[in-house]
Amino acid sequence: MRTQVCIIGGGPSGLLLSQLLHRAGIDTVVLERQSRAHVLSRIRAGVLEWGSTEVLDAAGVGARMHREGFVHDGVQLAARNRAIRIDFKELTGKPVLVYGQTEVTHDLYEARDAMGGTIITEAAGVTLHGLPDAPYVTFTKDGVEQRLDCDYIAGCDGFHGASRRAIPDKLLKTFEKIYPFGWLGVLSETPPVAPELIYASHERGFALCSMRNPQLSRYYIQVPLEDRVEAWSDTAFWDELRRRIPHEAAETLVTGPSIEKSIAPLRSFVAEPMRWGRLFLVGDAAHIVPPTGAKGLNLAVSDVHYLSRALIARYRDGSEALIEGYSETALRRVWKAIRFSWWMTTLLHRFPDQTAFDLHIQAGEIDYLGESVAARTALAENYVGLPF
């Protein structure tokens, strides 16, 4: 087979890149290791920056998102069981949109099918060859090894994928911070406790109240990394959540059986550069952020925005300037999002080695957010998304 751009990874970033390129007349083939059902079963984040919604609109996949998603003009930031509101719309003129990543992926699959896009699922043993200048990819489908020749490869295959590993170690720099705790998350078929997200800092640990739709809620609490999901009954989870969130929210919290429960470790990770010759890294293949700042999917969308513009300019005008600058341009926004996610995580969580001094600094910073419009504006600007 031959295509112009081989996209490794059939998650939202790979599908979005394929969709944008197809609409510009550029041929792509998407290779996905898992089945489509597996990809669509992943429970992931649900907060979209407004810039991300505009990219999805440009890809022609925004109709259901706007119809079923929830526009949030702000969030609640709580400490010591009392909340302050960060008003995004007032401070920045922009809201965010709550719409699950699974739903984004579903919309993208539907759009790719409607346009006759080539998506090869259950492609095993994907291997990159010929880099940096003459790329091709081999993989096995239904027991038969196949070869896909291409002009460029977009590695949208996540942290554990083959794309980043194809860059020689001597050229790749990685930066990582491991946080000493995880998030225990519960999905329940219950109405959300509040119309907006609640981020809660408490002496017992962090908590987050989120939602997917009017009858599907997503809640998290900070737990030690060594905790096991099996050790947390639903009752124990709900009791602990109540202790950490504002009193008025705790009194109205509707509980029910969990339909999904998991513990996710938190870390920050960045790989540089994000381009090697005709290979580009996109999304989790190049960077991971803790979920505190709601940046994971949004950073993948911004990578796709930069890369799609670069490839369209290359095929439409013959210009390689944006391709040459892809890594530097994408990384500038990545590092700002890494900083914001680190700041939010540091602000709201309890760390094992915190001193009394550290706790007073943390409390003082939260108090300052309640008193300062400038401080709330800085938080809001980063949360709704820095401009592309």
Describe it.
This protein is α+β, with helices and mostly antiparallel strands. It has 2 domains: 5-72 and 95-176 and 267-344, FAD/NAD(P)-binding domain, CATH 3.50.50; 179-266 and 350-384, 2-Layer Sandwich (D-Amino Acid Oxidase, Chain A, domain 2). 39% of the residues lie in helices and 29% in strands. It has helices spanning 12-23, 36-41, 50-58, 63-68, 88-92, 101-114, 162-165, 234-244, 247-252, 296-317, 321-324, 326-348, 356-371, 373-384, and strands spanning 5-8, 28-31, 47-49, 70-72, 74-79, 82-87, 96-98, 118-120, 124-129, 136-141, 144-149, 152-155, 173-188, 198-201, 207-213, 216-223, 258-272, 275-276, 279-281, 287-288. The strands form 4 sheets. The protein has an 8-stranded mixed β-sheet. A 6-stranded mixed β-sheet has the order 8-2-1-12-19-18. A 3-stranded antiparallel β-sheet has the order 3-7-4. Strand 15 and strand 16 (216-223) form a beta hairpin. Helix 13 (356-371) crosses helix 14. The radius of gyration is 21 Å and the shape is globular.
Question: Briefly, what is this?
Answer:
This protein has 2 domains: 5-72 and 95-176 and 267-344, FAD/NAD(P)-binding domain, CATH 3.50.50.60; 179-266 and 350-384, D-Amino Acid Oxidase, subunit A, domain 2 (D-Amino Acid Oxidase, Chain A, domain 2), CATH 3.30.9.10. 39% of the residues lie in helices and 29% in strands. It contains 14 helices and 20 strands.
